[in-house]
Amino acid sequence: MAKSKTKAPARTPKIKTFNLHWGSGIVEEEAVIETQYHKPSIQLLKFTDGEAKGRYEVRFCYYDHHGRFQRSPMILDERDMTQMRDALTRTPKLQRLLAKLVQK
Question: Does 66 reside within a domain?
Fold first, then answer.
């Protein structure tokens, strides 16, 4: 009798959520890198509830090395810009919004 192999269930990525005074929703895209001191992140926030429902916002934040969200401003070292730019290549919507910051 042949042994049947059971497949491990497919891992679904954890959906990150947020809750702000003007609405809540999901982190639709995120560019995150790891540096010596922290994990800088640029997030595309999609509001699904509240006053801002249906809107998008960009959040610049960071995580500590244990994965805990930090409520301080993100600081990105000049030496890490290339790594963050590479991470942003996997976030097309976020890239388009950030381009509006530098295009005239």
Answer: yes
Question: Rounded CA gap, 92 and 88, in Å?
Answer: 7
Number of domains within the chain = 1
From the centroid of its chain, how far is CA 96? 15
**Is 30 a member of any domain?**
yes
What is the tens place of the pLDDT at every residue in 72-103?
999 999 999 999 999 999 999 999 999 999 88
pTM of the model: 0.84
- Bridge-based pairing of strands 56-63 and 69-70 is antiparallel
Domain around 34: 17-102
In a domain, 41, yes or no: yes
| Closest to 40 in 3D by CA, of 6, 72, 3, 1 | 72
The answer to the question of residue 47 being in a domain is yes
Task: Report the alpha-carbon distance of residue 34 to residue 56 in Å, rounded.
Answer: 25
Dihedrals φ, ψ of 96, to 5°?
A: -65, -40
